[in-house]
Amino acid sequence: GAGVSQSPRYKVAKRGQDVALRCDPISGHVSLFWYQQALGQGPEFLTYFQNEAQLDKSGLPSDRFFAERPEGSVSTLKIQRTQQEDSAVYLCASSSAPGASTDTQYFGPGTRLTVL
Amino acid sequence: AQTVTQSQPEMSVQEAETVTLSCTYDTSENNYYLFWYKQPPSRQMILVIRQEAYKQQNATENRFSVNFQKAAKSFSLKISDSQLGDTAMYFCAFMKHVGNTPLVFGKGTRLSVIA
Lengths: 116, 115
Fold this sequence. Notes:
Chain A is mostly beta strands and 116 residues long.
C-alpha cells in the first residue's frame, strides 16, 4: 500500500474488555514498531518486529499487552482486561530492513483507545 | 539510556515569518540519527527532516532546516516563511545507528501559525 494503515481509528472499550488493534505496514517493509502516545506526550516505544520475529518487547507495560506478526506483514496489538490507564493513541510505524539507505520510520494514523 | 528534551511546550509565529524550535538530547553513542516529525491535528505523524550524526552539514528540506551541534547535543529546527499548514505538534526524536531501533521522542512543541 501507499502508507501504513491502522484499524480501527477509534475504539471505546469498557474496563476489563479485551481489544485488538491492527497495523498494515508499507509493502516490503520488514521492520514494524508499536508506540503508545498518551495525551499531550510524545510516543513511547512498546515493541519491535523484524519480519515475524519479535526482537524487542521491553516497552510493553504489562503482561496484559501482547503483539504478534505471524506472517511478517500485518501486526496485531492485543490488550487484555483493559484498564483506564491504557487509554492512549497507539501508533504503528514501519521501516525498511537494517542496513538500507534509510532507517526512517513511517507512521500510521494511529488508533485512539478510550477505556471507560 | 537516551533522552530527548524539548523545552518549549508551545510556540506561535506569524504567517511568513521564521521560527526556531529547540531540541537537546543526551546520549553516549557516537553514531545516531536525529529526526523532526510533525503531527497535525489529524494525528498522522509525518517526517519533516532527518540528520545523520556523522554528517557535519546541516540537513535542509525546502523551508525546513536544522542547526545540528553535535558537541552541544543540540538539534534545532528552523521553519522559514511559515504557513498556516505548518500548525502542528513537532516532535524531536533520536535513534541509535544500529540497524532498526526504536525512536526516542521528546514531549513535543505545539506550534501555531497565525494569519
